[in-house]
Each structure stands twice: as C-alpha cells, then as structure tokens.
Amino acid sequence: MNNNIVILGTQWGDEGKGKIVDFLSLDSAYVVRYHGGHNAGHTLVVDGKKIVLHLIPSGLLHPNVIGIIANGVVISPFELIKEIKMLKKNYISIKNRLFISDSAPLILPYHIEMDIAREKKLGVNAIGTTGRGIGPAYEDKIARRALRMNDLKDENKLSLRLEEIVDYYNSQLVSFYKHKSINYKTILNNLIKVKDLICDMIQDTTSILFKAIENNKKIIFEGAQGSFLDIDHGTYPYVTSSNTTVGSAITGTGIGPKNLNYILGVTKAYSTRVGNGPFCTETFGKIDDYLSKRGQEFGATTGRKRRTGWLDGVLLRKAVKMNSLSGLCLTKLDILDNLKEIKICTSYKNIGVNNKNYPSFYGFENVEPVYEVYPGWMKSTLGIRKIQDLPKEARNYINCIERIARISVDMISTGPDRFDTIIVNNPFLKID
Ligand code: GDP
Ligand code: IMO
Ligand code: MG
C-alpha cells in the first residue's frame, strides 16, 4: 500500500500549489519537486510570515520532511544556494534532509542571457518568460549537451565541458542575437565557490524514492506551473519548456505510474495568467481591478501583474482528463467574497471543428466564452475551515464547478495561511 499524492496546477500556474503542498506535508515524509526550475514561485504563509520558494520543495518548513529535487528539474546552483541561505535566515535548516538528483541539468548564466536575448528579438511576439533560462536549459538537456549535477564532482571535466559550451553560446549570442558575450572563467570560478556545498546533497534520488516507497512512506510530488503551460498540451508557443502535466511526476523522478495514488488538481476560483498567450475568459476594467487588487495577483517570481479572468470550466474539464485527476482543491475562494455575480465559462462559441468538450488550441484565437452566471455570497469566507460554515451561494458555486468539471472538490482554500483550509475528503485517506 502506498500513500503518494501528486499536487499540480490545472490552469496557467500560481493556483496556490505551494500553500497546499505545505499544508498536506504535515502528514508526509517526503516532498519532491520533479520539473521546472526557479521560474516557479510558491508562496507559503505560516503564523503571518510569508516565504516564497522557487526551487526547494514546499514541504521543508516542516522539520521532519525530507526534500528531493529530482532529475526532471533544471537547477541553477546559485539560486539554490541563495534559497538555502534565505531559509537559514528564517531559522529553517535543510541540513541532511535535502537531496538533489545527480542527473538534474544545470541552469547557468548563459541560459539566462540566451533567454533574455531571444525574448528581446521576438519583440511583440515574446513569450513573456520569467527570464530564468528555463527554455535554453531544457534545450541543452534534449540536445544531450547539458552539464548535470554530477558534473560538479569532477572539476577538470567540468572546466573542459564548460569551455566548449560557453564557446557554443557565445557564437550564437554575439553573432546572431547581437547580445553581450559571457565569460567562461567567471562562471567556472563561481561554480567552484559553491560546488562543495552542493556536492554533499547530490544523490541518486530515484533509489531514495524506491526505498521510501518500499517502506510505505508518504510522498508528495510537487508540480510547478500549470497544465496549460505544458510544452505539449498547453497554449504553444506561449508555454514553459517542460511537461507540467502528470507524466512529469514519473519521468522527472524515475518512479513508475502505479506509485502515484492520488492526483490533486489545484484550481484557483477564477483564472490568472502571467506572460502572453490566449486567455479567452480574460477580464478587463473593473473586474480585473477587483481580482488583481484583492487577489494580490502579482507574480511571486518576477513581480509582474498577472492577467485575470473568470474560471474556464471547459479547460478545467480538459485538465481533469489530461492529468487523471482524483480530486480538486479550489483555492482563493475568499477573493470572490465581494462580487454580486460570478461567472464560469461552460462552453465556447466559434469553436469550428474543434472538440467541444476537450478543445485543442488550434483556432483558439477565435473562440468566445459562453458563461453561466451565479449569485455571489457577499460575505467574508476568509479563514473558514469547515464546509458547513460557507455561505450557501459559495457551496452552490463549488457544486457547479464539480458538475462542469466532472470531478469532486476535495479541498477548499479560504486564505493564504496554511490552516485556512477546508478538507472535504482528505486525499491521504481517500487512497484505497
Ligand atoms: P503557486 O505558484 O501555485 O504556489 O501560487 P503562488 O504562490 O504563486 O500564488 C498564490 C498566491 O495566493 C500566494 O500569494 C498565496 O499566499 C495566496 N493564496 C493561496 N491560497 C489562497 C487562498 O485561499 N486565499 C487567499 N486570499 N490567498 C491565497
Ligand atoms: P508557478 O510554479 C505562472 C510562465 C511565464 C511565461 C511562460 C514561459 O509559480 O505556478 P518560462 O520562464 O517558464 O520559460 O516562461 O510560463 N510561467 C509561470 N506562470 N506560474 C509559474 O510557476 C510559471 N512558470 C513559468 O510567465 O508565460
Ligand atoms: Mg507561483
């Protein structure tokens, strides 16, 4: 019997995954990041104190939880060290309880420069990336040219490979992108300064997970970004460069699919998106002002204003299917408290030949949302921890989401604090 949960986003990221991972980690032994990099920004609020994590698994605020950054993550060694220091300042030690895969590719300064140079060249067609070098780092992985964590262990080899790769990048950066060049020696020296700290944490994390599974330890797999930023299934090319859907929890760790026992889709009660790309339920004017101010919808990584919109029930239904979700966690319900009317998109107009229930993104530019409108509750739900204490209109809104997305809402989040959470069906107990 295993007790493993995957927690992933069903929209375009920032659904509140970090908060839910932190909350459910109270009951878990391991928390594993399995894809993405420091483009993620996961916010945790405990006793009024806010901590934003980009790379380190969100369960590590609990002193007994073991964290793993698995092979599917692209890791900037410098960001990793920064984050460990930030936690230390907050009296959280990760000593002997954070393990990093030997096979995880590195993000180095040339990836960041390339990301910035490409976005600049794209101009108005830019993706709106986080500028963290994520795309170029995954390109190196697929091109079989990446430096990986294990390469930090052999300084001579590292130095030779790094020189070759920097040459390759400089030729593109300078000739094609008319961008500044990068200095191989500076990168090498900086890597040498941090590598000993990191080498202590490098392990074959797949074996650690096999052992944890054999010992029936509870494991949480922490997704980053959201389902429609997926490189294959998202709004391409306005996506990130990893698979954000459930398959990454397998390929990004090395464990098998039977070890994923419950898959929780975290869904914001409305929608947001940072960066460019189609967003058919996007709101402007008063509603956008309301959602972005009350929801504090500014990126946890880049500080950019997030675009806002109504919940897209059609895409949510697709996210349920794509990820084989077991249940949803609806977050930020309290943000809707002062709205007289709340809308959910339940179908599209001008969908052409596209599948009505599970549309693809070809021809998506022309799609128009058809909304169902629900009465708001006009009462505070902030911090409510029992389902029966929610106003009846809020319960009605939740029931409608269940009907439209064809899945149960097993958890509800009513505030940023770890404990502002309603458990309708505990994912750990729902596993048979
Ligand atoms: P993530 O990337 O999915 O982990 O989400 P982010 O941390 O980027 O963004 C979610 C934001 O909403 C953070 O500022 C959280 O503290 C906050 N948050 C999460 N759940 C709730 C909730 O139920 N209510 C409110 N008001 N804020 C929440
Ligand atoms: P969390 O884990 C929201 C978006 C960027 C951009 C696109 C590509 O906090 O939910 P990238 O830098 O990945 O190449 O950018 O993806 N993006 C996110 N949006 N939340 C995230 O992570 C994101 N990570 C990347 O804004 O549109
Ligand atoms: Mg975020």
TrEMBL record:
Residues that, per the record, bind GTP: 13-19, 41-43, 306, 332-334, 413-415
Function text: Plays an important role in the de novo pathway of purine nucleotide biosynthesis. Catalyzes the first committed step in the biosynthesis of AMP from IMP.
Molecular function terms, GO-annotated: adenylosuccinate synthase activity; GTP binding; magnesium ion binding
Enzyme Commission designation: 6.3.4.4
Cofactor(s) required for function per UniProt: Mg(2+)
CDD domains referenced in this protein's UniProt entry, alphabetically: AdSS (cd03108)
Domain of life of the organism encoding this protein: Bacteria
Principal place of residence: cytoplasm
Subcellular location: Cytoplasm
UniProt: Mg(2+) binding residues: 14, 41
GO cellular component: cytoplasm
Gene3D superfamilies: Adenylosuccinate Synthetase, subunit A, domain 1, Adenylosuccinate Synthetase, subunit A, domain 2, Adenylosuccinate Synthetase, subunit A, domain 3
Catalytic activity: IMP + L-aspartate + GTP = N(6)-(1,2-dicarboxyethyl)-AMP + GDP + phosphate + 2 H(+)
Gene designation per UniProt: purA
Free-text remark on how the cofactor is bound: Binds 1 Mg(2+) ion per subunit.
Binding sites annotated in the UniProt record for substrate: 300-306
Protein name according to UniProt: Adenylosuccinate synthetase
